[in-house]
């Protein structure tokens, strides 16, 4: 990445600008703007997050926000209430309070003498979600949005549920937020006599969100609120949507491009869950330059040509050897002026010949361990590995060897007819690229709780032995399968630990299956190009403990229990400007017996540390999830230390009845 140190306008930073909400709650904002903005007002750009601007997102903030300010914007990074250096309490993700606070910050920014009255909002993940939801509320000053790694459907395409199946991230992310939000504000900003009271109040009111999310197992009003797919027409701001093929939120881009009536463009690269100017696998792109084109057009009225850009720009990844991490993915950029595209044709492939005996799908509960993380994050061993271990536990339909390369661009689908011997069953379908030597690379996958085959809102139990039809939509992809390789469609009824298992072992009798494959004529080279990545001066730190990631799969040969152990040590660093040191370690274990779905268990343990000049605090958060045939059982614990003294402890435990899950 090229570091830019000289900008068209000189930048001034305000590290703790207080923004007082109508109810009196003070939100802490870090603001960068041109030094002369008071004389020459500029548009504002808001990023509104719970992830701590002081020590959480500071790495990416340093690259991004001063860059925008140097090009004529007031760039505002706000800690949401109840998080970081802001006052107040947080009770849930995307709450009405959170969204209203963002609207109030937008109105505040637009009214400032240094702002020209036009505001944009951007963010990745949580910030990508809430900027779309805020846009749907139509605050008058909000003219444009850049949303990365986000969703249009909080139920069907987030970390909670997928295809009506319970994602283990529902528990995992609740554990993460318990840890993230239990940290105190920085005493240098909150005050030596105040930070501790704010911290203890925060701890006493900290929610453990897993039981709440588990209590809404179907697509009810809880999930509909904030899901912009309920009314795409509510979005009137111009939207640039960006995602990555190695991220869990890869489907949103085409949903937005297809459905929003306001100006909208989409870009998908080969990246994990990161901003694309420093993301991997490479190639990264000049995201900040691309963002400036968007902001300049919709916030300053400058003709930058963005309206003539293709509706959809996607990176078609070449086939590579399966690996848990790829520093880069070879491939090429393709462009579609409109979507749906007339150049993408659907090829229909019958997987089971007429008259064949049904294929019996009865996977061990440990099938799925090669699937990787839902949204890889650490630049570490989190990608899907060689699929052969999972293929061996699935029913596989191998296609003929390809005589010439094909480009798959879009969402593959599989129509199935099957019967189940139990009233609730899951199905997982993977599309794989099989190399000549047998190595199997995951292209895309989809899962479906078969009781949701007709509706996520009104599930229907299966009648054992009765044949039903269902459609499994796989994730969007852009992938070239070369000549000499062949496609494999692998079907299982377990996908651990991506989804929680059914309460009983299941046999599915698969009598028909048809693959709908979206094919685009193979591109011969890049159809669009992007500038090389740029960024402002990186965050200046001293490394105290280096980061590292580990991932182990162990099988107890005596008991048969399979355990996936993950340790992500994010290291510890000291900020060279304000002296705050912060460290973080996450540990997860996921265990299951291949023959017993009720043996499934997940445990997490997070450690967070903050210190400066003899002052130190630490939080330890532990959580566990298991289930019986009737209930999910979740528990958690917070321990907070000042120095080595335990100053707070709290336990959570709840049972949530299963409802066709």
Q: Which tags fit this structure?
A:
alpha+beta; Rossmann fold; Jelly Rolls; ten-stranded mixed beta sheet; eight-stranded antiparallel beta sheet; 38% strand; globular; Xaa-Pro_dipeptidyl-ppase/CocE; dipeptidyl-peptidase activity
Report on this model:
The chain contains eleven helices and 33 strands. The chain is an alpha+beta fold. The chain folds into three domains: 2-152 and 228-336, Rossmann fold, CATH 3.40.50; 345-520, Galactose-binding domain-like (Jelly Rolls), CATH 2.60.120.260; 541-576 and 579-657. The two termini are 46 Å apart. The model has no long low-confidence stretch (mean pLDDT 97). It comes from Mesorhizobium kowhaii. This is Peptidase S15.
How are the secondary structure elements laid out?
Layout: E1 2-3, E2 11-20, E3 26-34, E4 42-49, H1 58-70, E5 74-79, H2 96-111, E6 115-124, H3 126-136, E7 142-148, E8 161-162, E9 165-166, H4 169-180, H5 187-190, H6 195-204, H7 210-214, H8 221-224, E10 238-244, H9 252-259, E11 264-269, H10 287-300, E12 312-317, E13 331-336, E14 345-350, E15 359-361, H11 388-391, E16 395-398, E17 406-410, E18 413-420, E19 426-434, E20 440-449, E21 468-473, E22 477-481, E23 486-492, E24 508-520, E25 534-535, E26 541-545, E27 548-555, E28 562-575, E29 581-593, E30 596-612, E31 615-627, E32 631-642, E33 645-657
Parallel strand pairs: 1-25, 4-5, 4-6, 6-7, 7-10, 10-11, 11-12
Antiparallel strand pairs: 2-3, 3-5, 8-9, 12-13, 14-24, 15-24, 16-23, 17-22, 17-24, 18-21, 18-24, 19-20, 19-23, 26-28, 27-28, 28-29, 29-30, 30-31, 31-32, 32-33
């Amino acid at each position: 990445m090229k570091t830019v140190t000289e900008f068209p306008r000189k930048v001034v930073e305000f590290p703790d600008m207080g923004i007082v909400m109508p109810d009196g709650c003070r939100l802490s904002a870090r603001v960068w703007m041109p030094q002369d903005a008071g004389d020459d007002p500029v548009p504002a750009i808001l990023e509104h997050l719970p992830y701590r601007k002081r020590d959480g997102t500071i790495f990416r903030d340093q690259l991004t926000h001063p860059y925008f300010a140097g090009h004529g914007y007031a760039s505002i990074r706000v800690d949401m209430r109840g998080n970081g250096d802001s006052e107040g309490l947080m009770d849930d993700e995307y709450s009405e309070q959170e969204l209203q606070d963002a609207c109030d910050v937008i109105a505040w920014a637009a009214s400032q003498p240094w702002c020209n009255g036009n505001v944009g909002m951007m963010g990745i993940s949580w910030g990508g979600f809430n900027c779309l939801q805020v846009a749907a509320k139509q605050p008058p000053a909000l003219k444009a949005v850049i949303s990365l790694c986000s969703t249009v459907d909080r139920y069907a395409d987030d970390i909670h549920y997928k295809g009506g199946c319970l994602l283990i991230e529902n528990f995992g992310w609740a554990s993460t937020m318990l840890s993230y939000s239990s940290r105190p504000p920085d005493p240098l900003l909150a005050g030596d006599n105040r930070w501790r009271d704010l911290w203890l109040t925060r701890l006493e009111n900290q929610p453990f969100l897993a039981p709440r999310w588990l209590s809404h197992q179907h697509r009810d009003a809880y999930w509909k609120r904030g899901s912009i797919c309920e009314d795409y027409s509510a979005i009137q701001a111009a939207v640039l949507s960006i995602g990555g093929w190695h991220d869990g939120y890869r489907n949103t881009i085409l949903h937005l491009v297809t459905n929003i009536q306001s100006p909208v463009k989409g870009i998908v690269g080969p990246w994990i869950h990161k901003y694309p100017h420093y993301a991997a696998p490479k190639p990264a792109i000049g995201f900040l330059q691309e963002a400036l084109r968007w902001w300049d057009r919709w916030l300053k009225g400058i003709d930058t040509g963005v309206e003539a850009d293709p509706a959809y720009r996607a990176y078609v990844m070449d086939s590579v050897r399966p690996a848990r991490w790829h520093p880069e993915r070879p491939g090429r950029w393709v462009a579609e002026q409109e979507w749906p595209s007339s150049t993408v044709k659907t090829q229909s492939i019958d997987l089971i010949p007429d008259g064949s005996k049904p294929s019996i799908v009865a996977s061990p509960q440990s099938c799925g361990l090669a699937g990787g993380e839902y949204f890889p994050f650490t630049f570490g061993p989190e990608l899907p590995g060689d699929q052969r271990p999972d293929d061996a536990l699935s029913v596989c339909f191998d296609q003929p060897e390809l005589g010439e390369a094909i480009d798959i661009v879009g969402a593959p689908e599989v129509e199935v007819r099957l019967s189940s011997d139990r009233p609730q069953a899951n199905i997982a379908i993977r599309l794989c690229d099989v190399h000549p030597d047998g190595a199997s690379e995951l292209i895309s996958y989809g899962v479906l709780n078969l009781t949701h085959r007709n509706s996520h809102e009104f599930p229907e139990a299966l009648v054992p032995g009765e044949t039903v039809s269902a459609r499994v939509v796989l994730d969007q992809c852009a992938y070239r399968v070369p000549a000499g390789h062949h496609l494999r469609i692998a079907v299982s009824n377990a996908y651990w630990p991506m989804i929680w298992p059914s309460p009983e072992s299941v046999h599915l009798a698969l009598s028909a299956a048809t693959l709908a494959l979206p094919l685009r004529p193979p591109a011969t080279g890049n159809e669009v190009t992007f500038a090389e990545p740029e960024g402002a001066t990186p965050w200046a730190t001293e490394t105290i403990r280096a980061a590292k990631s580990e991932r182990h799969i162990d099988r107890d040969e005596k008991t048969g229990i399979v355990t996936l152990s993950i340790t992500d040590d994010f290291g510890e660093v000291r900020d060279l400007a304000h002296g705050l040191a912060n460290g973080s370690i996450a540990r997860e274990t996921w265990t299951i017996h291949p023959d017993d779905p009720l043996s499934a268990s997940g445990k997490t343990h997070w450690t967070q540390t903050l210190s400066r000049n003899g002052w130190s605090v630490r939080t330890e958060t532990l959580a566990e999830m298991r289930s019986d045939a009737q209930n999910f059982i979740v528990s958690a614990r917070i321990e907070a230390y000042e120095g080595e003294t335990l100053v707070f402890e709290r336990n959570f435990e709840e049972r949530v009845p299963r409802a066709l899950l």
